[in-house]
User: Fold these one by one.
Assistant:
Number 1:
Amino acid sequence: MRYVVGILMVIDGYPLVFFFKETLRLAPGSTAFTAAFMALGFILMIPFHFLHKLYRINTTLLKMALLFFAVILFYMAFYRDQWFRDGTMDAVYYVYVLLFLIFLINIPNDIIEVFIPITIAFTVVSNIALVYALLTDPTWSIGQRAAIQFGEGEYRTGNPHVFSRNALMSVIACGIWAFRPQTTFVPRILSLFASVFGMGILVLTQTRSSIVALILIIGLFFMFNIRPRQIKDAIRGLFRPASLALMLVVFMGISFFMRKNGDLIAILYGYAVAFIERNMENVYALLGMKVQNQFTASFDASAGNRATSFQYLRNIFEGHLHVVLIGQGYKSAYLDVPLMEALINHGIAGFVTFTAFCFSALFYSIKTIRDNPDSLSTFLAYFYIMLFVQLFTNGRPYEISFWHPFCLMIRFVGISHLYPPNLLNHPTVAPAVSG
C-alpha cells in the first residue's frame, strides 16, 4: 500500500498539491512544496530490498524509450535554439523520470493486489477536495471550468487538465473494481457511485481530450467484454423478480436524488450543453460555416492554437522541407501537439523514435484490454488511451506528465505472463498428473 500511494503521488499528485497549497493556503505559489510532495512520493516508493531484488520489465518499450531520450539529449546538448541556453531544469526532469523507473523496477509485483482499491481511494479524495475548493472559492462561479485557482488578481487561473485526468483515473479504477467477479455487492455499488461522481467531475472540467478518451475507453470495453450471448442473458435477467425489484429501488433512489439535488442536475446539464455548443462551433469553424447569429464561427483559444500549429507544419512542408529531416532544435517550437513537436524540433529521428514508442505502447494496451490479464495492467492500458489522445491534442513530448505514466507502462504492461497465478485474473491451471 505504501508503494502504491507513492506511485500515485508522483503520477497524480497535482490535484492534492493544488488543494494543500491554494485551498488550505499551506504554501501558496510555492514550487518547493510541489517538489517536496513529489519527493515524498519517491521516498514512499523505496523498498527495503532496494537494489537487492529487481523485477522484469517490458524491454521492448524500454529500448524505444531510451532511443528517444538519446535523441532529445543529443539535441539538448548540441542542437538547440538560441533562446534555450540553460538545460539544467530539463535535466532535472529527466533525472526524475529515471529515478521513477529505477524505483519501479525495485517494487514487487504484489502491488497488483492492492493497486485498484488504493487508486479508487486516492482519486475519490482528490475529487472531493476539488469540490470543496470550488464551494469555498469566492472567485469561482458556475459556468467556469472546474479547477483550483492559483495566482493573484488578473493572473489568477487554474489547470483543469490535472483534475480531469484524476477523474478519468477514478472512473477507470472504479469500473475495473465494479466489474471484477470477486467484488462483493456493497463495494460494487460504491464503486459505481464513485465512477458516476468521477464522470460528473469530467463534465465540470470540460476537457476535450479526457471526454474523447472516456468515449474510446467505453467503446473498447464493450468491444472486448460484451458478447451477443451476454446481451441476451442480460435482457432475460432484467425480467426476473429480483432484477425488477432492484430496478424499482434504483429508480426510486434516482428520483429522490434528483428532487433533492435539482440544482446540481441543472448545473451538470448546463455544462454538458455548453461543452457541446463550444465544440460544435469549432466544427463549424473547421468547415467554414456560420453559427445561428450568422457570424462566421471561430475556434476557441485551445483549438485555435492547434490550428495555428497545423498551419505551421503545412508551411514547413511547403517551403522548408529540410526542417522535417533534421529538425529546428531542442524546444525550438511550442506546438502543443506532442507528435508534431517531436517532428519539427527533432526531425525524422525524433519523430520515428517517439511514435515507435507511443504506437508500441498502444499495441500492448489494446492487447491487454482484450486479454485482461491482471487488474494493474488493465488499468494502465485503459489509462494509456487518454495519454494517446493527448499525443494529438495537448502537451509536449518531454513532459513528465507523459513519461511518469510511460514508466509504469514499461514496468508492468505486456509482462503478465511472468506473474505468479495468484496475481492474474485468469490463472492457468496446470493439468493434473496421474500417478
Number 2:
Amino acid sequence: MGHATANSLIRACNSQISTLTVHADDYLSVTSEISPPIAVTSTYRIPEKLGVNNFGPETHIYTRESAPVRSRVEAVLGAIHDNGHAVTYASGLAATFAFLLYFKPKRIALGVGYHGTRAAIDLYQKRVAPVTLIKIDDPYHEDDLIFLENPVNPTGEVVHLYHYGRRAHAAGATLLVDATAAPPPLQQPFRAGAHFILHSSAKYLSGHSDVMGGVIVSRCCEAAGTLRSQRTLLGSFQGSLESWLLLRSLRTLDIRVRQQSRVAAQLASWLQCAAEGRGYEGIPVNAIAKVQHASLQILPKGYDVCASFPHGFGAVFTVQFTTEAIAKQVPNLFRLTANATSFGGVHSTVEWRYPIDQSTCPRSIRVSVGLEAFDDLKCDWVYALTYALHGEAAAKAKL
C-alpha cells in the first residue's frame, strides 16, 4: 500500500491514538526505512521550480524554517489532537513566549499552575507590552486570552474545562490550554472549546527524560502558519535530533500514558489511606497529611469528568506531609524513585518544589509516576517514609 493511500485509510477509519502515533506521518516517508533518518544538514538544494513562499512539510530549504523529521513529528502531533495543526519549539517556555508574541494579549485570565508560565508573562510585560492579569473566574472580554492548565501542575487536579470553554466562546475570548500533564489519549481540549493547546514535550510526549521541546497545536491552519513563520524569525525551533527523539517517543505514547495514569491513580489512592497521619500497610503514623490528585478530587456538580478524561488522569500528584522536615528528607530516601525535577518520564520522580516555587506548600512534594510496577512503588514509599520517621534500621527491617 502506498503512503498516500495509507494516510487516506487512517483518516477514513477515524483511527485511534495508537494508530495515529505510528502512521500519521507515513505520507511524508521518502525512503524505505521503517524508522525515519535524522537529517543533520542545515541547508538543502533548492528545487528548480520553487515559488514565492512555497514552503511546506515536503519542501525544505533551510533547517531554521523546516526539516523532514520536524515535519513528521508535527504531522503526528496534529493528528493526535483531533487533526489540529502543530508547531514545535525548542522548549515549553519558548512555545509559551512565542504564543504571547503571536497573540499580543491585552488581558490574560490566568489559572493556577506552573510558575514558569507566570514568569514568561512577566517578561513579556516588561519587555514587549503591558498586560492586565485577571482572575480565571472574572468576567471575560472580547479578545481576552484565557490561559488554563489542565491538569494543574503540581497537584494533578483538573479544572472544569467545558465551563471555561463555554465562557470564552460566549465572550469572544481565546482559550489556550496547557495540557502537558495529560496529553492524548487522556484528554482532547479542542472538544471542550479550546482554540489552542500547549505542551512541554519534555514531559509525557517524549516520556524518556531525554528531550527538550514544546508544541502549540491550533485548530486553525492559518494560525499555525503564522506561528511557524514567526518561529523562523525567533529561531526557537526544535533541532532534528530532538525532533527524531520526540517522534520515536510518540510511537509508544498511548500505551505509556495509559499505564502511568493507571498506576498513579492506584498509588495516590493507597497513599490517601494514610492521610491525616494514619498508618496504613507499612506507612508510619504521623507521616502523610493529605494527597492531591484528580482521582481524589471533589469536582463541581455537573462536571462529567469521565467524559473529559475517558482513559484516566495524568500521572502527577502531590503528597503533603505532616512536617516540612519530612518533605525535605524523603525525596533522597527512595531507592527506585529519583529526586529530580520535571515529570512525565518512564522513571518515577519526586521533588520538593518549595525552593523554586514558593506558591507551593513547603510540606509537600510533587510525585511523577513512571513505568515501575505498583507493588514495587509501594515498597519504595514504605521504605522512604519509615527511614524518614524511624531511621535506616527500621526501614531495612521492612524489606
Number 3:
Amino acid sequence: MTAPSSPARTKLTQLASALRHFHSALLDHTRSDYEFREGRIDGPFALYSLVMNHPSFQWLRPLSGLMATLDEVLDTKDVLTERHLQDVRSALGLLMLGTDTRFAEFRTGYERAAADPKVRETEARWREILDGLDA
C-alpha cells in the first residue's frame, strides 16, 4: 500500500528534496575546507567516517537529524496535513534563526559556508519551497 497523496505530502516531498541538495552543498563546502587544512579525503568511506566522528563535520548533525525526521514523516502511510507543514516550518526556524542556542554550532558552520555559490543556490531553493508551503 502506498502513502495517500495530499497537497501537504507533495509540498513536504519537494522540501525534503531541496533540503538534501542544501545538505549536500554544505557537506561539499565542509569537505573542501577540511581537505584544504588536512589533506585529501580518500574516498566515500573515509568521508563517511569523518562525517560521523570528526568535529569539523559535527555541526551538520542538526540538519541531518531534521532531514531524517522529515523522511520518517514522509514514509508514514498517514495522510499528511497542514500541521505537518507547520511543524517543519517551526523546526527549520529553530535551526536557522539565532534564537535557539542549541543550534549555535550549526549556525556558525552555516555562516562559514553561506558565501559558497552552491550553498546560496540550494538554500534559495528550499526557502522558496518553504515560503510556498502556505499556498
